[in-house]
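Protein data:
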Amino acid sequence: MNSRLSIAAVSAVSLVTLLGGTTVAAAQESDPAPKSCDGVRLTGELPAPAPGQAVSGQITIGADCKPERVSVQHGPASARSARTATAAGGTTTSATAAGHQLRGWNEMYDCCNIRMTGLYTASSWDTANGRVTTGGTTATQEWNREPWDAGWSLTSQNAKDDCVTDCAEVNSEAHADFAYKGVFDPTGDWYDNTHHSYVQLKADGTASCRFDVELRHTFVGWNWRYGCE
């Protein structure tokens, strides 16, 4: 089983609304309170917090297959964010002490609080004279495995930056698709989690984070956690 990332306590000025373009969930079953939900999609958007702070949201799949207990939290960044520059070292960015750094997470948990799948980003950018002189984002993925060589697996992933040197701003995106085959579904045809993360790095040193997750099937009690710091 891959190692788990700890979730930071979080900060935020973002609002996640239901059915208003920020969070959408749809169920295709006629049962008024099904345990299994089909075709759920969740979206969240957050402004990046000040240095040393974190912002995150959490949405739980409710009994009617609609998102509930929407929350946005803020607080100090985790110790992991201090290592963002190291994690982003593989990009075209050369982070310096004066540069800007941002870490993002996009995770799906089951009703037993086990992280099933996750997409993570690490961004660094430097600014001068109203421009992003260098910038970029790297992406990593983690997923839960079962002891008998089963569980979740990564089926595809990609990431890109629209500009990396002398930019008005840098728009980065990362995508990861995960499939499941194991004790809960031996066929491998039922579950599929697709994560999307988008980061905008600006010349004034600010940033924004947007996240999406698409779930082929889900259960009541599954919860989605996302944020940046």
